[in-house]
């Protein structure tokens, strides 16, 4: 439960959630994604698709990698393409330089490669809202640059992003919402 939390994020902008571990950053992202019920208060999306929930208009990239270890890299992306209702699998492979690994079983990938595969869903199919929970963990500098480029492109196209992370983000004008221990109950 949160007390006194109020925020808005305009199209083309990024909101960074900050605060110590356990302050509710991941919980807030799960609430927005529709994975938890809101006990009190409201959540609204202006200009979204009227027939879809806010969660259905989000890409939620949790800090746990949403991949199936028994499937190959490309099979994982095809699964998500089917689940999400379409998408550009080749574009998603290219977004994080995964083409050369497409036939590898996900179980054999390094932690960084697994995270790149999980994040590649962002490039699979456009969604107006990106919810990013510790998106930088396990990424090398080249992969971070690819992530920054993908986020930048999403924002330029009018998308919005909310990221829970302890690292500085390289986007001028990034707003911060501090969920210090006083905000979480």
Q: Which key features would you list for this structure?
A:
5 strands; 6 helices; 31% helix; Rossmann fold; globular; 12% strand; alpha/beta; 185 residues
Radius of gyration: 16 Å
Q: Name the overall outline.
A: globular
Instruction: Write down the overall mean pLDDT.
Output: 90
- Going by helix content, strand content and strand pairing, the class is alpha/beta
Tally of discrete structural domains: 1
Order of helices and strands: EHEHHHHEHEE
Please give a structural write-up.
The chain has 185 residues and is an alpha/beta fold. It contains 6 helices and 5 strands. It has one domain (14-178): P-loop containing nucleotide triphosphate hydrolases (Rossmann fold, 3-Layer(aba) Sandwich). 31% of the residues lie in helices and 12% in strands. It has a 5-stranded parallel sheet with strand order 2-3-4-1-5, sandwiched between helices. Strand 3 (129-133), helix 6 and strand 4 (160-164) form a beta-alpha-beta unit. The longest helix has 16 residues, at 141-156. The chain is globular, with a radius of gyration of 16 Å. The N and C termini lie close together (6 Å).
Summarize the model shown:
The protein has about 180 residues and is of the alpha/beta class. Helix content is about 30%, strand content about 10%.
Outline the secondary-structure elements.
Elements: E1 14-18, H1 25-33, E2 58-61, H2 73-84, H3 89-95, H4 111-119, H5 121-124, E3 129-133, H6 141-156, E4 160-164, E5 175-178
């Amino acid at each position: 439960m949160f007390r006194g939390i109020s925020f808005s994020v305009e199209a083309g902008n990024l909101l960074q959630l900050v605060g110590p571990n356990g302050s509710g950053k991941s919980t807030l992202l799960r609430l927005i994604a529709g994975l938890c019920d809101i006990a009190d208060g409201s959540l609204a999306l202006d200009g979204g698709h009227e027939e879809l929930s806010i969660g259905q208009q989000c890409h939620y990239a949790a800090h746990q990698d949403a991949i199936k270890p028994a499937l190959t890299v490309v099979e994982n992306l095809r699964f998500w393409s089917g689940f999400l209702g379409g998408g550009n699998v080749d574009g998603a492979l290219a977004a994080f330089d995964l083409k050369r690994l497409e036939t590898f079983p996900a179980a054999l990938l390094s932690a960084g490669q697994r995270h790149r595969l999980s994040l590649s869903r962002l490039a699979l199919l456009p969604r107006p809202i990106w919810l990013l929970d510790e998106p930088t963990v396990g990424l090398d500098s080249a992969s971070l640059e690819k992530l920054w480029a993908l986020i930048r492109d999403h924002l330029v196209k009018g998308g919005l992003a909310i990221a829970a992370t302890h690292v500085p983000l390289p986007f001028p004008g990034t707003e911060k919402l501090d969920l210090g221990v006083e905000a979480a109950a």
